[in-house]
Design a protein that fits this description.
single chain; alpha/beta; 14 helices; 13% strand
Amino acid sequence: MELGMIGLGRMGANMAQRLHQGGVDVTGYDPGEQARAQLQAQGIAAVAELEALVQALPAPRVLWLMVPSKVVDASLDSLLPLLSAGDVVVDGGNSWYRQSQQRAARCAEQGVGFVDCGTSGGVWGLQEGYCLMIGGEQATVQRLAPLFQALAPAADRGWAHVGPVGAGHFSKMVHNGIEYGMMQAYAEGFALMAKKSEFELDLAQVAEVWRHGSVVRSWLLDLSADALQRNPALDGIAPYVEDSGEGRWTVAEAIELDVPAPVITLSLLERLRSREDNSFTDRMLAAMRNEFGGHAIKRSEGG
């Protein structure tokens, strides 16, 4: 099977390499010369123009988008005029499922299929395989099965056709919301242990113990144990946590569906809070405590 991969960032390049190792003939496209060179160093063809990518693929073509969600529409603007009826576009990035449904309708207008593939695995996917949540028409997904089998940890696990268009990215959205909550719980637990100075706990040791037989063991815990082993005090890491947007979409969906999701919601809010170097909220709290109870205010430097 032949595939065009659009977007050769780290994850896209890793996916192209895993597909190549699985016997898929991949041609990559990226406007960045360095990205193309890195893929070519792995023995995989890479081109500098979308037209060249489309021409390199036999019809009916399969084009896999591995680009940030904010540029998917622009990518389709450039790509769709080059495609023909029967071709298929796969969006493997973190797109909002409602937009995936709209994009599928847009592609259908010219007979082009669309598949939304929620992709989890991060930078470890090349080695471990990717978890794939796939939305789309049954016949189209079946046609692309060799791609999913090559990307997944094994041909019979780690990937599933979860429903119609939109279902793949919806499932991935909820997956990431759960991930936010799990990460927050681990972070708070380790912070609590770090604060208990009388025990002088070795956090890397505790994490390693929890990895074996504990009910809280997980891949996230494995990664936490590795991080603490390398850098026990987390020196040089700023307390600033980004979010990809998936957590926000999950919280909005929970509100729309009247589903209480306090853990996911609070974990998202904690990420937002981490970005405030000089939190007005915390300064307002201190001012109120001083006003009603005369509690001392800690003055900032220069204040």
